[in-house]
Amino acid sequence: MNEKSSRTYLLDNSGIGHEPTAGSSVKPHNRVGFLNHHLFADFLTGPGFRPLTTRFEKEIMGFKTRILDMCGSEKKETKRTGDFFELFTQELTRTSLRATCGPLLLELDPDFPRRFWIYNCGLPHFLRRIPRLFAREAYEARDSLVASVKLWHTAARLRFEPRYVDEAADVDPFWGCNFFRQRQESLGGIDNYDADAIASEDFGAIWGFNHNVILAAFWVSYEVFRDHALLSRVENEVAACADATKLSGIDVEKLVTMPLLQSIWVETLRLRVHIFMSRKVTQADLNINNWLVPRDNVVFVSSTPAHMDTASWSCGPDHSHPLDEFWADRFLVPQSDGTAAFRLDASMSGSWIPFGGGVQMCPGRHFAKREALLTCAVLVSCFDVDLAVPDGGMEMDWSTCGTGTLKPKARVPYSINRKEHGGVN
Ligand code: HEM
């Protein structure tokens, strides 16, 4: 975004509440924080949420079909050559982009997912402000992605007519959904916002909608497939959620309440998400445990100390499950009837903060859980996956620490075959 447009952020001291912060004179149409926040909330926790989940359920069937095609019709003894991570960075990103932005962006730029992950791998360069000269690939990927979003906007504007919007007043084949249509109006009204600025904003949204969850979905499935005993327990939970009346053949609302899957989800985020949340101290100096943060300063809160705090989390009998290792059962409590219940209660809410907190807490958290667990469920019920994992497990790449879910440090060779008898419809 050019400097003139991005100054809108610097000048916006009106907060994200309906009422602007006292003393702010920012005009309503320039309240960029408020406009963004409320469009996100409507899309991800308000009226846009169910239609979005339904679209994802439909699109995950395309994900399954593409992998079935990859496998071919015969069960074969394949060598573990491909990279399991790429199944997520390519195929799941495609699925998620279609669910959020509709089909047109990918029709215009089928290579978007590949460059999206080149950009993501280049995040450390942007964070350290490495000049373009020394990080050409990352900068070129970013520029080309924003250019594709702008091209998508131009094409959607030309082709869209109100009659294409579905009965629920949400989906259309060009903008994808109401969220992106509304953003054209709201963001288009901001002073000094041109087509490039709006494309940058939408690219930022697309990044937030995909980066953390695709990586988290990878880690969930990685943990499940690398441990055969865990896989068989997960298979049982997934089988209990089979429902032929659902688009994906799985009752997603039931799936996200299953104790073991919930524990795997929460543990994955505890271990893999290392994110800095930023807050600006606006009203008065802030006193935290006698540390004074002067007004107008920015505070970064890291999720890592809380997620690694031995006083907060169970480490199992005799500390057999240290916090730097994945333990699927960390959030399960044995019940008297022999079953286990999932437990992440209010007493832990300040310690489990992958989604941040307060009014700025991630609005995509409900969708993220559905996306990651449904992806895992489809893989578990339809495919046999064999991963080649180094002893001691795959290390994480800490170079993007602070931006959210970490990547694996190396490739994860794998083979995949369709299951002989199984699978969702
Ligand atoms: C594992 C997955 C995810 C993680 C760890 C994550 C984490 C976060 C965090 C830490 C924040 C900032 C919260 C704060 O400042 O307190 C955030 C904001 C946000 N997230 Fe997520 N997120 C994930 C998935 C998603 C998904 C799937 C979506 C949308 C589909 C999404 C949309 C957003 C948006 C729009 C914001 C900004 C909200 C605002 O400024 O009003 N996130 N996320």
From TrEMBL:
Its cofactor is heme. Residues 1-24 are annotated as: Disordered. It comes from the Eukaryota. SUPFAM superfamilies: Cytochrome P450 (SSF48264). Keywords: Heme, Iron, Metal-binding. Pfam families: p450. Belongs to the cytochrome P450 family. This is Cytochrome P450. It comes from Paraconiothyrium brasiliense.
